């Protein structure tokens, strides 16, 4: 039975990976999407193209909200500081 549970977990991980890959590019202009922190530990996936309104021209933007782990924020901050 443990094999079934392990395979279910792997399938779930694969789905999450596919979902993450599906949102890498803007569905409207094909620009690379970015996570923008909007509140502590919460980010919204936005299109950085100033001429594109995604996701603000969508009926519901809540699908683009994600919880951000503290370690991910720390890694992003460290990377920004190291490039300056």
Supply database-style keywords.
3 strands, 42% helix, globular, 2 helices, disordered N terminus, 84 residues, alpha+beta
What does this structure look like?
The relative contact order is 0.12. Helices cover 42% and strands 17% of the residues. The protein has a three-stranded antiparallel β-sheet, with no helix packed on it. The chain has 84 residues and is of the alpha+beta class. A hairpin with a 2-residue loop joins strand 1 and strand 2.
What structural class do helix, strand and pairing data support?
alpha+beta
Distance between the termini: 52 Å
Number of helices: 2
- Approximately how much helix is present in the residues? 40-55%
| Biggest sheet: strand arrangement | 1-2-3
Q: How many whole angstroms does the radius of gyration measure?
A: 16 Å
* Secondary-structure element string: HEEEH
Mean pLDDT: 75
The portion of residues forming beta strands comes to 15-25%
Shape: globular
Overall structural domain count: 1
Uncertain runs: 1-5, 7-18
Oligomer category:
single chain
Largest sheet: 3 strands, antiparallel
Quantity of strands, as a count: 3
């Amino acid at each position: 039975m443990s094999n079934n549970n392990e395979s279910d977990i792997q399938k779930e991980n694969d789905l999450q990976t596919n979902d993450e890959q599906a949102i890498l590019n803007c569905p409207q202009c094909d620009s690379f999407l970015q996570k923008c922190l909007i509140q502590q530990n919460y980010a919204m996936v936005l299109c950085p193209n100033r001429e594109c309104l995604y996701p603000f021209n969508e009926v519901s933007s809540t699908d683009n909200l994600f919880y951000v782990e503290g370690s991910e924020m720390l890694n992003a901050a460290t990377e920004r500081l190291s490039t300056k």
